[in-house]
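Okay, any thoughts on this one?
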Amino acid sequence: MKRSASMHTAVVRQTRPICCVSARPLALCQGGPNGRLPAFDLPQHGRGIFQFRRFEHQSFASALPDQCSREALSEPIEMIADSSGERMLRIRWEDGLESEYLYFWLRDHCRCKECFHPDTKQRLLDTFSISTDIKPAQAKIHGRCLVIDWANDGHCSSYDTEWLRRTGHPETSREVNGYPQVHLWGQEIRDDPPIMAYKDIMDSDAGVKDWTGLIRRFGFSYVDGCPPTPSATQALLERIAFIRATHYGSFWDFTSDLSSKDTAYTTLALPAHTDTTYFTDPCGLQMFHLLSHTAGAGGASLLVDGFKAAATLRLEAPAAYDVLSTVRVPAHASGNEGVSIQPVRAFPVLNHDPETERLVQVRWNNDDRGTLYGDQRRVEEWYLAARKWADVLRRGGSEYWEQLRPGRALIFDNWRVLHGRSAFMGKRRMCGGYINHDDFISRYRITNLGRAKVLETI
């Protein structure tokens, strides 16, 4: 399936020739003595040819951010050039990649304390006060920074070259953007499931780092040694973020008494599904902890890696994958009196990042599906595709079954991992709750990458 990708502000182009700038006037595509170009002055007329000067204004240097004042061992920029006709600055990196940066975009993204609040990390500059014909008077390389004097307003901006490189080539910053390599799995995960110790998580953020890393990589994790009480389980969940309240409440402590009109509150078997497909923003993480199961049997828990199932479907039936990625399916929650929750619009089963086409969310709950409207031929295509999808989910190789027990909490990514259970007899007491997906990713990134690294992406 082909999807359109939005344009990045910093665009990589390889097709157009670059008129590079030298320390020697009028020398094209040659660097200085070390092959690098330290600074240029914009000409009054013409395009693409600049005369470079070394950065020498000490008073100006003292106002630069710390990262600019430190001299780098090597300059990552090999060439800077002006694209006057397109109002862009063109950079060739030392590995040969090239990027273009709109002048207006560069001025809008100045990170000095006048333009960007150092504490709140919010923009202070009025974007629309910037002249539409903004242009540099001079550009310089200083340490690991690109420094620009602006001709229109006399302002000086500095840009960390690593940050510039990432914005020009966002595919190189996958990890920082919260997209680590994931481990796809089937029933074989039973031999070595991801497990954390309750004490490690509660004792330090290093434990939270490892825990969120496991969840991000595998889509789920067990936590062993959790006291079988609601208070201990809630404290565990809140180590990641605050609990999301829904029409079921915030933190749950429930039995199969139909106190909420949902099949989850019965003893019935539940097929593999994701929760809250009826929300515009489905819940991100979900935790279950079996506190007790008396006078009965059954109730094994089912997990299915939705990303693995989607990869299988795409390989075996690409047309079905396309249908499930494009046909929008209504959903609702209407069992409780006074409640009928429906998303602001219908969503497909498989949802992708519109820029990278990467699968980011599975929304599958046939029990909560609403009425399918529209072209009945398209509806038939959806039924056929959904049948293939259900077949992949129900294969023995896809299903991971495990009997939960008191003292072992289960947490999983509701955007990726489907869950279910077998029917059971007796009385089970469960507790758990939801966390927003954005809050989970925030906690993952801060603990695994560090706040400083994360802030470089904003």
Summary: The CA atoms of residues 39 and 174 lie 31 Å apart. The first helix runs from residue 58 to 61.
